[in-house]
Specification:
mainly alpha
Length: 153
Amino acid sequence: MSLDVDHPPDPPTLEETDPNRYEDAEVVGDTDYKRDELEELLAAGAWAEAFETWTAETDLDEDAYGVMRDLALFERFDFFWDAFADRVGYHAPGLPEDWQERDLHPELSSWETVSGINAALAELGDTVSRTLKADYVDWETEYEAPDDLPDFE
């Protein structure tokens, strides 16, 4: 199944945030998260390319996509360089567990829709992260092993 979208939303603006504050991320070592560089790469085509790949593969329907767009969820993504893991890390936004009490959107009426949106956001984040690393990021991580590693000879 695919999602028919005329054009992708604008790429997110990446703000200086410590990714360790997210429950789903743990970054050790270098704190140069290269957000400015990643933001430029997103604007240069990585976001649009990944978004196109994601829309071709997602099971999300147009109504759920409309909710995501209305709630400005695409703008709340975060991408950062994780030098230790030599990868582009990401944090995907999501709908909270108390979505019913908050009355977030008139089209939200089931846990199935909320779960589908949250899963689709995670899939988009992963797709963008992989696209950035595979096709756009051209810097290398300079890994320095700690002095206290055992000698396995």
